[in-house]
Amino acid sequence: MTMDHVDANSEEMRGIDGDRDLLVIYDLATGCLGAYPVKSKCAAEVLQSMTHFAGEDTIKSIYIDRAPTLIAAVHGMPGPPIVHATNIPGVPNTNGIAENRVEIMVRGIRVMLLSAGLPHCYWLYAATYYAFMRTVMKIGNESIFAKRHGSDHFKGPLIPFGALVKAMPSAIHDGRRIKFDHTLQPAVFLGYIVNPVVHGTRSSA
Questions:
Q1: Which residues contact 55 (CB under 8 A, 6 or more apart)?
Q2: What is the rounded distance in angstroms from the CA atom of residue 159 to the CA atom of residue 149?
Q3: 8 A C-beta contact, residue 150 and residue 142
Q4: Distant-in-sequence, close-in-space partners of 49: CB < 8 Å, separation ≥ 6
Q5: In whole angstroms, what is the distance from residue 155 CA to residue 204 CA?
Q6: How far apart are CA 62 and CA 68, in angstroms?
Q7: What are 55-68's pLDDT values in tens digits?
Q8: What are the tens digits of pLDDT across the range 4-17?
Q9: C-beta of residue 190 within 8 angstroms of C-beta of residue 125
């Protein structure tokens, strides 16, 4: 596994929910790519993201740079110690896989925002959507989703990012609805809720 941050730490790039950075995690064994918008680069947020990405899987080894927060998060993972290698400062090739996945993610975010016609502040939704779609899309008879979950391919609907859909409002906003309005209201589709990998049960997103 590898992971690295995409730095969006500027006022003009702050996400609509206040996120300032993006942690990109990549599973070398299956090709699964994870995108985790975070408020900061602190070890607690990295650890939470790693735990979600791993699910019930055991992380055996990881390649990271020498950022103290990344190292602290690796040491904080529950279970057996994780073998990890760090890159050499100033020599990008020593962390080439992680940096390559960061570049892929950045390009994917640009395409998602452009295709949906959404402003930059929606980058966090574009990131998680792009990572999920890379996982579920079938190439021939194979998909990363099936490899990662040890199951069939993703069976849910594939909805374009930014598509106009009808959805049931959350209880927080449902009070704005007029009494006889339809329960389904127009909405913009921003992505899927992705659960951690749990083997032996039906995976959902």
A1: 196, 197, 198
A2: 21
A3: no
A4: 23, 25, 34, 36, 38
A5: 9
A6: 15
A7: 888 888 888 888 88
A8: 888 766 666 788 88
A9: yes
